[in-house]
Structure formats: structure tokens, C-alpha cells
Design brief:
Keywords: Membrane, Transmembrane, Transmembrane helix
Radius of gyration: 16 Å
Number of helices: 1
Structural class: mainly alpha
Helix content: over 70%
Number of strands: 0
Transmembrane segments: 13-30
Shape: rod-shaped
Order of helices and strands: H
Largest sheet: none
């Protein structure tokens, strides 16, 4: 019963940190472009 729950939970645990990193990178790139 719990194996499908784990299979759906693992991608979320990997997906959200990647989204946060991607967002931070996009913000830093926008800031660097504005500064230059």
C-alpha cells in the first residue's frame, strides 16, 4: 500500500529543490543583467 505513495513522494522531494535552485539562478541572472 505504501510503495506507490513513496514512488510519488520521491519525485516531489527531488522536484521542489530543483525548482528553488532554478528560481534562484534565474533571479541572479536577471540581477546580473540589470547591473551590467
Amino acid at each position: 500500500m505504501c510503495s506507490p505513495c513513496e514512488l510519488t513522494a520521491l519525485p516531489r522531494l527531488v522536484y521542489w529543490p530543483l525548482m528553488l535552485v532554478n528560481y534562484a539562478l534565474s533571479v541572479t541572472v536577471l540581477r546580473s543583467k540589470r547591473n551590467n
